[in-house]
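User: Hey, my collaborator sent me this sequence without any context and asked if I could get a structure. I don't really work with proteins. Can you help?
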Amino acid sequence: VQLVESGGGSVQSGGSLRLSCAASGMTASRYCMGWFRQPPGKERAPVATIDSDGSMTYQPSVKDRFTITLNTANNTMYLQMNRLNSEDTAMYYCAADTDPRCTVVGGFYGMEYWGQGILVTISP
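Assistant: No problem. I've predicted the 3D structure and written it out in structure-token form, which is a compact way to encode the shape of the chain:
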């Protein structure tokens, strides 16, 4: 299984970016797929997940600004990020888990596979 992120970079506050996660060695629609992020000096936390039924969850701070989607034709997950602000600055990671339901245990997702991460920087 390999997950490769792309689409990061620097954008001004209020702008938009779309992250991509190309999955190989697995059928993404059969997995729990998710985006996580780690801001500078903070712990990594979930941003959005999508399970095998297409149900989505979002961190409250990004709800109504971010949209997670999965394109089954090219086995790629996306994160459309709008109205970005400085608090969105972070390293963003794509992740996948063989539990298709995105089960949370003890407040944590047990994601088995991770991408290398991609940096998103929001400037004032």
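In plain terms: The first strand starts at residue 2 and ends at 6. You can pass these tokens on to your collaborator as they are.
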